[in-house]
Specification:
By secondary structure, the protein is mostly helical. The protein has one domain. It contains twelve helices and no strands. Helix 6 runs antiparallel to helix 7. The two termini are about 25 Å apart. The model has no long low-confidence stretch (mean pLDDT about 90).
């Protein structure tokens, strides 16, 4: 395989030419986030590869999560900002691991369907997801308290949060896919997906838009396509591993 810019020899795993440092066609052909999402949509639609029971559970959890957040932000009155921030993080700690764990168990979902064995497997995996969310709550809290005051620092905080969300995209899959501790997984995501960071950021945008669209029709969209983001991110991580972009 040769670089289309300088004709230098490149390997299939190279995302940037080692000679001219320009993007190779590998990113466009294999790692565009939108392309992976379209492929995943076609797969879910064609194969009808979803579990109604699982998607119903996901819908209920999402509804409760948003209901708690809505009550927290628009109804509850707190005597101090610190208490408000603490309650907010408790809500995230309670619900977010439940919404993240399906990223790491897509193969099991396809094999088992939604049954007691799958429920037991999810419960077994949950502690690592709670730890993952807890660590990130601390990281986001540091962003918040280090960037208080100056409007420029607030802008820096927004940039840091968006960048870190892009770093986190493959992590929920990696938590069960690779038997490393959390620190090594963070390093693997930082280094292995460095050249794909813009695509990871695009994935964050697609997932956000998808959830908004699915929520608008009274959450009914989740009953049919609730597992689409999970399938897409799993497919992306599998592609990255298959092409040798990351070294396990």
């Amino acid at each position: 395989m040769r670089c289309k810019h300088c004709n230098a020899q490149i390997e299939t795993k190279d995302l940037y030419c080692p000679k001219c440092r320009k993007k190779t066609q590998n990113i466009k052909e294999n790692f565009m986030a939108w392309t992976v999402f379209k492929e995943s949509y076609a797969e879910v639609k064609e194969k009808n590869s979803f579990s109604f029971g699982f998607n119903l559970t996901l819908t209920i959890i999402t509804f409760l999560f948003l209901a708690f957040l809505g009550t927290h932000f628009f109804i509850m009155k707190y005597p101090s900002e610190m208490l408000r921030y603490g309650v907010e993080n408790l809500i995230f700690l309670l619900f977010v691991p439940l919404l993240l764990v399906p990223f790491g168990i897509q193969n099991e979902i396809m094999e088992m369907g939604y049954n007691k064995d799958l429920t037991k497997y999810i419960i077994k995996q949950l502690p690592k997801y709670y730890l993952f969310v807890l660590v990130n709550i601390v990281i986001f809290a540091l962003y918040k308290f280090l960037c208080i005051g100056d409007p420029v620092l607030r802008l820096v905080r927004v940039i840091l949060v968006l960048w870190w969300l892009a770093v986190l995209v493959p992590m929920p899959v990696m938590l069960t896919k690779y038997k490393h501790n959390l620190y090594r997984l963070f390093r693997l995501s930082l280094k292995g997906y460095e050249d794909l960071r813009w695509q990871m950021f695009a994935s964050v945008i697609f997932i956000f838009i998808f959830n908004v669209v699915m929520i608008i029709p009274l959450f009914l969209g989740y009953l049919r396509y609730g597992n689409l983001p999970y399938v897409a991110i799993n497919k992306y991580v599998d592609k990255v591993e298959k092409h040798g972009v990351i070294s396990i």
